[in-house]
Amino acid sequence: MTKILVIDDDADIRYTISEICRFGGWEPLVAANGQEGLEIFRLNRPELVMVDYHMPVKDGINTVREIRELDGWVPILVLTVDERQEVADNFLDQGATDFALKPIKAPDLIARIRINLQIGRLQRQKQQQQEEVFVTKGISASTLTIIEDYLKAQKEALTIEEITKQVSLAYQTVHRYLLYLVEEGKVVIECDYGKVGRPRNRYKWNR
After folding, report:
1. Relative orientation angle of helices 141-152 and 160-167, to the nearest 10 degrees
2. Which of 23, 72, 99, 107 has the most CB within a 10 Å radius?
3. Cis before 75? omega within 30
4. Which fold would CATH assign to domain 3-205?
């Protein structure tokens, strides 16, 4: 059975996520802080890790960095109430794969776990084929492939919210990857002025 490590100092959250994991057919492992989580990770090598941001003993940022030093492919999903892009960018720079915002909603978390397990399998394949797992700092080759493949299949330009919903990744993650693709010239931005409110950016594969 697929093992998922949940690292969070809140016992209620650990229980809730454990029940969601069992419902999804995965085996939960739990830790109350980053240090305990690292020890469990070393012993069990789970297929996915969920890490809280604010924790005693060892916070989420340091926990993510140390897990990534131990394992280059395991997907790391950050649990946080902080939606700021700069926080997300910091975690992605340390090796996080994606985010799940609290309060946790079971259907959303199950979808997020499934896509990140898929990312983990792709990462593992790349390692076995001796390909680059990370394109550059904060950009996973496997996550990038999922977003690229989705955009290539679309005829119309889409907002970040629309892309986020379809690929089952967090807004902050998609935002980071779209900026990278724009910088690389692979994606173009179309400005939708609409009839009311501020203009919205829409993103389209540069064919």
Report:
1. 110
2. 99
3. no
4. Rossmann fold (3.40.50)
- Hey, where are the domains in the chain? 3-205
Instruction: State the Rg of the chain over Cα.
Output: 17
User: What is d(CA 171, CA 175) in angstroms, rounded to the nearest whole number?
Assistant: 6
**pLDDT, tens digit (0-9, with 9 covering 90-100), for 182-205:** 999 999 999 877 666 677 899 999
Dihedral over alpha carbons 127, 132, 136, 139 (to 10 degrees): -50
φ, ψ for residue 67, nearest 5 deg: -65, -40
The model's pLDDT over 80-136, given as tens digits with 9 standing for 90+, comes to: 998 899 999 999 999 999 999 888 899 999 999 999 999 999 998 888 888 888 889
